[in-house]
Amino acid sequence: MKAARFHGRGDIRIDEVPEPATLPGTVKVEVEWCGICGTDLHEYLEGPIFAPTPDAPHPLTGESYPMQLGHEFAGVVVELGEGVTDLRIGDRVVVEPYIVCGRCDACQQGRYNVCATLGFVGLSGGGGGFSRYVVAERRWVHPLGELGTDVGALVEPLAVAYHAVRLSGVQPGQTGLVFGAGPIGLVTAASLRAVGVEDVIVVEPAAVRKAKAPGAGASEIIDPRDGDVVEAVMELTKGRGADVSFECAGIDAVLASAIRSTRVGGTVVNLAIWGHEASVAMNDLVFREVNVVGSLAYCNDHPDTIRLIQDGKVEPHQFITGRIGLDDIVEKGFEELIANKEENVKILVQPS
């Protein structure tokens, strides 16, 4: 089968690879749609970052690049391994793309998203969604019901946002503040509205992204070029500040604004993967007892995320800004997202 594989920085190729075999306890999925993630872009531009190298193969898969990419994917069940009896051929499903050890303290706590040797299908081995077939353990395969698989490919990034919103502890009637209206910021705004938060403030300078924010759930938009963000938030919240804030950029100045914009005793959730050591004014935390929480990916969040979509509380089609074939993944996918990142949210790839 054809697959898009990472061969090194700036080098993604369409290769012929063996079709994966279905083993006991696993499910073979024919991928219909797979989204290009910001993590994939970073790998392409700056990698290897998450992709294991030949000198240091992934400890669980034993694999290193060149390797298949794609971890935001959904498709249909085409084969069931021995012992799998609760799915049927033809079921539409999304795969939670984890590779975990099951033995470390995090896994024993049930927090498998921070496994000591965490890996991802499509980044660490085990195949990838930019190919026709993926075989996954039954535990990671989630039925979509009547939802389409294009929507299914949006479940993974929505689950990232839902996990962060869940960790924040935000409640209906409170105020959520999201820094950035890129893909993760937009789905975070959508997740806040989905759980009943009506006051959602988004901070974003780019005109194209600002235009997308209301559809995602923003009730107010602040352009940081128009003045002091903290003052603007305080004015909108009658001097209290936001109950919860979400840092999606990995930028020191943004983190500082998020902390200072959060009310006494409130919470800042960091979703960003930082490319440098963050600089934090600790007194901004101490003097107002603001909590800072890290949020990584998702953990037992896929079923709830799917239900939010099924119940109409999130409209994921708005985030799909392109659909392409596998052969066009570099030029019309990766390069398009790099050159026109403000115009695009999610480009979906059809592998076959």
Task: Write a structural description.
The chain has 352 residues and is an alpha/beta fold. The chain has helices spanning 38-46, 105-109, 149-152, 155-168, 183-194, 207-216, 229-236, 252-260, 282-286, 302-310, 329-339, and strands at residues 2-8, 11-16, 26-35, 67-68, 72-80, 92-95, 98-99, 119-120, 133-137, 141-143, 175-179, 199-203, 220-222, 242-247, 262-270, 291-294, 320-325, 346-350. 27% of the residues lie in helices and 26% in strands. The strands form 4 sheets. Strands 3, 5, 6, 9, 10, 17 and 18 form a 7-stranded mixed beta sheet that branches. Strands 13-12-11-14-15-16 form a 6-stranded parallel beta sheet, sandwiched between helices. It is globular. The mean pLDDT is 96.
Structural class: alpha/beta
Radius of gyration: 20 Å
- Content of β-strand: 25-35%
What is the succession of H and E elements? EEEHEEEEHEEEHHEHEHEHEHEHEHEHE
Largest sheet: 7 strands, mixed
Q: In one word, what is the shape?
A: globular
**Mean model confidence by pLDDT:** 96
Helical content, roughly?
A: 25-40%
The N- and C-terminal alpha carbons lie at a distance of 9 Å
Uncertain segments of ≥5 residues (pLDDT<50)?
A: none
Number of helices: 11
Count the E strands: 18
